[in-house]
């Protein structure tokens, strides 16, 4: 028998499930979703379930409606011993990125996590631009962001790197960890307690699967050696996976991602760049384009050295990306509305 409250089942979820509670249904949490089949943990144990027709039809309009690792779902058990996922219960938080197509659709990476840890290795040196992009995604999810500097044993002074990185992540905890020495693992376990879920987000070779094994206390995820020359690795986790941690709580391991497309993350972007957003509020004109206008606080900060050109260019690049993708999304939704049959 499983303990769903240890994975986050609470009164809010119970209330959302109540209208669907019948003799042939039950609630559970998705451990893994792969090609139309979900592995779900219920009060009776682990079950395999296919997707109901209504979910497949909904996914035609928006693939983000499909169940993902971390989702709480309603299962239905049929007389012929089939089990289907009938409904995805409302998500508290959701980590979603833009797909590679031109329609600006979203791909759910994880759901119902309490904390999103941006995992960045200390070897080679952390990539500030990548951290900023992933932080914007983490803020937009609605969960608590965290930066985990993995492989801290490869750095002579990991705390110095953490202090430097904290300058571009105001208010976000930066935690160096090493699975080889055990440094920082106890601090990371604070985010994986009974009823809480930690999601790991980062590139391939960042050490996410090794961190999962360290938190679980056993080898539950396969790991591969990375190339020594550039610190990059092949994809170890090819799917999103919810791993149960002894004593309660869970870790969501996501695939290593080479690039993350931002969708409609203007709110998350402004929180990831809180310093830049605050400067922009002090410009003389509310519609300042920050490109030579008089009284521009951004240009003054660049001239004084309070804002680095690299961070400013990163902010501009990501805002342009969000603006373009938001426009594409608006066009797609308008087209869908025009094609919708009138009653």
Tell me the number of helical segments per DSSP (H or I, 4 or more residues long). Answer: 10
* Alpha-carbon distance between the two ends: 48 Å
Q: What is the name of the CATH class of the largest domain? A: Alpha Beta
The number of domains is 3
CATH architecture group name of the largest domain: 3-Layer(aba) Sandwich
GO biological process, one term: ribosomal small subunit biogenesis
Domain CP-type G: 103-260
Organism: Winogradskya consettensis
Pfam families: RsgA_GTPase
What does this entry look like structurally?
The chain has 3 domains: 87 residues, OB fold (Dihydrolipoamide Acetyltransferase, E2P) (Beta Barrel); 159 residues, P-loop containing nucleotide triphosphate hydrolases (Rossmann fold); 74 residues, Ribonucleotide Reductase Protein R1, domain 1. It contains 10 helices and 13 strands. The strands form 3 sheets. A 6-stranded mixed sheet has the order 10-9-8-11-13-12. It has a 5-stranded mixed barrel with strand order 1-2-3-5-4. Strands 6-7 form a two-stranded antiparallel sheet. It is globular and about 70 Å long. The termini are far apart.
Task: Summarize the structure in short.
With 343 residues, this protein is an alpha/beta fold.
List the defining traits of the structure above.
OB fold (Dihydrolipoamide Acetyltransferase, E2P), Rossmann fold, Ribonucleotide Reductase Protein R1, domain 1, six-stranded mixed β-sheet, five-stranded mixed beta barrel, 10 helices, ribosome biogenesis, metal ion binding, metal-binding
């Amino acid at each position: 028998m499983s303990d769903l409250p240890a994975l986050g089942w609470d009164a809010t979820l119970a209330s959302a499930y109540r209208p669907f509670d019948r003799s042939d249904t039950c609630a559970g949490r998705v451990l893994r979703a792969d090609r139309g089949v979900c592995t779900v943990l219920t009060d009776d144990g682990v079950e395999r379930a296919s997707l109901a027709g209504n979910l497949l039809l909904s996914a035609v309009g928006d693939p983000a409606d499909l169940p993902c690792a971390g989702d709480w779902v309603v299962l239905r058990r049929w007389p012929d011993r089939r089990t289907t996922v009938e409904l995805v219960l409302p998500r508290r938080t959701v980590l979603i990125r833009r797909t590679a197509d031109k329609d600006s659709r979203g791909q759910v990476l994880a759901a119902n996590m309490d904390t999103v840890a941006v995992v960045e290795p200390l070897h080679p040196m952390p990539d500030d631009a990548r951290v900023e992009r992933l932080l914007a995604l983490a803020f937009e999810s609605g969960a608590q962001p965290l930066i985990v500097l993995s492989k801290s044993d490869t750095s002579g002074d990991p705390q110095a790197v953490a202090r430097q990185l904290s300058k571009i992540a105001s208010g976000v905890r930066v935690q160096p960890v090493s699975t080889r020495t055990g440094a920082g693992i106890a601090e990371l376990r604070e985010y994986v307690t009974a009823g809480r879920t930690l999601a790991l987000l980062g590139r391939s070779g960042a050490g996410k699967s090794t961190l999962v094994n360290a938190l679980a206390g056993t080898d539950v995820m396969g790991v591969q050696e990375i190339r020594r020359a550039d610190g990059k690795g092949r994809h170890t986790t090819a799917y999103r996976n919810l791993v149960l941690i002894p004593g309660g709580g869970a870790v969501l391991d996501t695939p290593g991602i080479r690039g993350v497309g931002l969708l409609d993350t203007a709110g998350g972007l402004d929180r990831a760049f809180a310093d830049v957003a605050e400067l922009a509020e002090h410009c003389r004109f509310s519609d300042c384009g920050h490109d030579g206008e008089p009284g521009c606080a951004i240009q003054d900060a660049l001239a004084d050295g309070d804002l680095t050109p690299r961070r400013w260019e990163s902010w501009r690049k990501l805002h342009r990306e969000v603006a373009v993708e938001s426009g594409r999304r608006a066009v797609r939704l308008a087209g869908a509305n025009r094609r919708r049959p009138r009653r």
